[in-house]
C-alpha cells in the first residue's frame, strides 16, 4: 500500500495548488462532449451473406428507436467505409439507450459508432467506438485535422 499512499499525497498536493491559483481551468486539449452535435452508428454487412441480419436489425432498430434516422442501404462501400453498410443518425441524448441496445442486438455485425464534432477525420479514427470487428477506414477521404 506504499504506492497508494504516495499517489494520495500527490493528489492532495494537486488540490492545494488549485485552491491557491483560483478556479480550475480546463486542461489544454480536453474536448468538451457538449460539442457533439449527433452520433452515427454504421451497421456493416456482407451483401452476399449477412444482408438479412442487417435487414432484421434495421427493422428492430426502427421499432425500438423511431426518432433515429435510418440512412440508405449501401451495398457498395461509400466514403471512408470499406464494406457495405447503412447508417443510423441519432441525437446525443439517445446514446445511453442505443449503445447498449446495439451491444445486445447487433446480430454479429460490425458496428462503428462515432460522434459528429465537425472534424470528420478525428470522428472516424480517433473518437470512434467499434462493436464486433474493427474494419478498415479510408483516412485519405476524410477532411479535418489529423
Ligand atoms: Zn458516419
Structure description:
The protein has 146 residues and is of the alpha+beta class. The chain has a single domain (33-141), classed as 2-Layer Sandwich (Alpha-Beta Plaits), CATH 3.30.70. The chain is built from four helices and five strands. It has helices at 2-21, 51-64, 95-105, 120-125, and strands at residues 38-44, 69-70, 85-90, 111-116, 129-131. It has a five-stranded antiparallel sheet. The chain is globular and about 45 Å long. 16% of the residues are buried. Mean pLDDT is 87; it is low at 1-20. Bound molecules: zinc ion.
SSE inventory with pairings:
Elements: H1 2-21, E1 38-44, H2 51-64, E2 69-70, E3 85-90, H3 95-105, E4 111-116, H4 120-125, E5 129-131
Antiparallel strand pairs: 1-3, 1-4, 2-3, 4-5
Bound molecules: zinc ion.
Report a brief summary of the structure.
Helices cover 35% and strands 16% of the residues.
> Number of DSSP strands?
5
Bound ligands: zinc ion
How would you describe the shape?
globular
Strand order of the largest sheet: 2-3-1-4-5
In CATH, the architecture is 2-Layer Sandwich
Number of helices: 4
| Secondary structure: helix percent | 25-40%
Specify the structural class.
alpha+beta
CATH topology: Alpha-Beta Plaits
List keywords for this structure.
146 residues, alpha+beta, Alpha-Beta Plaits, five-stranded antiparallel β-sheet, 35% helix, globular, disordered N terminus, binds zinc ion
Amino acid at each position: 500500500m506504499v504506492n497508494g499512499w504516495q499517489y494520495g499525497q500527490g493528489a492532495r498536493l494537486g488540490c492545494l495548488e488549485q485552491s491557491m491559483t483560483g478556479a480550475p481551468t480546463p486542461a489544454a486539449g480536453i474536448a468538451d462532449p457538449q460539442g457533439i452535435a449527433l452520433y452515427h452508428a454504421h451497421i456493416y454487412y456482407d451483401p452476399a451473406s449477412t444482408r438479412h441480419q442487417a435487414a432484421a436489425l434495421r427493422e428492430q432498430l426502427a421499432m425500438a428507436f423511431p426518432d433515429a434516422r435510418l440512412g440508405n442501404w449501401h451495398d457498395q462501400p461509400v466514403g471512408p467505409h470499406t464494406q457495405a453498410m447503412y447508417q443510423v443518425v441519432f441525437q446525443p441524448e439517445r446514446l445511453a439507450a442505443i449503445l447498449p441496445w446495439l451491444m445486445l442486438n447487433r446480430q454479429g455485425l460490425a458496428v462503428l459508432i462515432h460522434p459528429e464534432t465537425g472534424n470528420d477525420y478525428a470522428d472516424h479514427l480517433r473518437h470512434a467506438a467499434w462493436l464486433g470487428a474493427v474494419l478498415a477506414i479510408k483516412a485519405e477521404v476524410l477532411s479535418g485535422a489529423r
